[in-house]
Design goal:
The protein has about 375 residues and is an alpha+beta fold. It is built from six helices and 26 strands. An eight-stranded antiparallel barrel has the order 1-2-3-8-9-14-15-26. Strands 4-7-10-13-16-24 form a six-stranded antiparallel beta sheet, with helices on both faces. A five-stranded antiparallel beta sheet has the order 23-17-12-11-25, with no helix packed on it.
């Protein structure tokens, strides 16, 4: 009975302290009400919760989501002699030239060549691929608002957004899969052609250079300019016959801004909220791409390197050149394993041509992202 009396006394004291604390919090305007709001703006669609921590300060926490809208853009697919349109036409008719030299692609052993040539002959001859670009940004936010004026209409805000680093991506459309699959097939055969030709036949070596697409055009893909050391960069489709890249930013993004708030109802439970400010990206975004070949474009001792054609002292064709040293002996060879992944088009490359270059020029200058949003909130207690 004595223990029970002590327990009741402790509960009474605790209840009294809690009541006093609630009274103090209410008197000091600390956590004594909560507003729940929704908003829409340049950072997407958002929801947040706000509570006061004094007469002139409130804290907000919430989440913003950018709708996944798509916009399409065409990007050139090239070879060292221009677009792939002419390459498609040449490859689609190469079986006719080979037949002049007794090579019948319908015979066993030529299935891979036959399938590729047939595929190219059925594809629209064009020099571009359409990529669908879309934002993927979604992030949490934590904000501290200072309301220095008595009417509490104006506020000044500091805080941060945090979320996944990937802010946008570009992926080739499904309708381009057949073309990109054919380009992958062509590149795979091209890697072997300079070594062994087609059954030992090289059209360019028998006076048919104009009809030899491998000799004239070389690797096909997206030209990305050069690496900082001067080597050429060429992106090819991935194993899934897709071309893709992604834009990444810092996972934590500081924010500074100001806002205006006013009541929408007589009971002051509904409010209109307008916010404007700047989200800092902590440096320019990165644009990453995979499946990027790196070609040595400097002169060689054994011969010369001109527009991607390697020739030794015996006039033997080597195709795109990647050069290595083995025990002081320099060797020229084709190496389709030297593919770089996670190449940053903004920081690793230079002189990127075409529309990709235009996008990179813009992205490299973007260090902040503006916010302008309008929302409504409701005081739930």
């Amino acid at each position: 009975m004595k223990r029970f009396s002590i327990f009741l006394f402790v509960l009474q004291v605790a209840a009294s302290m809690l009541a006093q604390s609630e009274s103090v919090l209410k008197e000091k305007n600390i956590l004594n009400h909560m507003d729940v709001g929704v908003n829409v703006g340049t950072l997407g669609i958002g929801i947040d919760v706000a509570v006061p921590v004094g007469d002139y300060v409130r804290i907000r926490a919430g989440y913003n989501y950018m709708p996944r809208f798509n916009f399409d853009a065409d990007f050139n697919v090239e070879t060292r002699s221009g677009g792939v349109g002419k390459l498609l036409e040449k490859v689609g008719k190469i079986d006719e030239k080979l037949s002049e030299f007794g090579i019948d692609l319908n015979k066993p052993g030529f299935e891979e060549y036959k399938a590729m040539f047939d595929k190219f002959s059925k594809i629209e001859a064009k020099d571009y691929v359409t990529l669908g670009m879309k934002p993927t940004l979604h992030q949490f936010k934590f904000m501290v608002d200072v309301l220095p004026f008595k009417n509490k209409h104006w506020s000044f805000t500091a805080g941060f957004y945090a979320g996944p680093a990937t802010a946008a991506e570009a992926v080739s459309l499904d309708k381009e899969s057949l073309l990109l699959e054919a380009i992958n097939a062509y590149n795979g055969i091209y890697a072997e052609y300079p070594r062994s030709g087609i059954n030992g036949t090289y059209l360019h070596q028998i006076g048919k250079a104009a009809d030899d697409p491998f000799y004239k055009y070389g690797l096909a893909g997206f030209s990305l300019g050069t690496f900082k050391d001067g080597d050429k960069a060429m992106m090819v489709p991935g194993a899934d016959n897709k071309a893709r890249s992604e834009m990444r930013v810092s996972k934590v993004r500081p924010y500074l801004g100001f806002g205006y708030n006013t009541h929408l109802s007589k009971d002051k439970r509904w409010k209109l909220n307008v916010d404007a400010g700047i989200m800092f990206l902590c440096g320019a975004p990165s644009i990453y791409a995979d499946n990027v070949y790196k070609f040595d474009a400097s002169p060689t001792e054994e011969g010369y390197y001109v527009s991607g054609i390697g020739v030794d002292s015996y006039d033997k064709y080597y195709g795109e050149i990647i050069r290595n040293d083995y025990d002081g002996v320099r060797e020229i060879y084709i190496d389709c394993s030297d593919v770089r992944n996670h190449v940053d088009l903004v920081r690793d490359l230079q002189d990127v041509p075409g529309k990709a270059g235009d996008i990179i020029d813009v992205v490299s200058k973007v260090k902040v992202y503006p916010n302008l949003s309008v929302g409504v909130s409701y005081r739930i207690f």
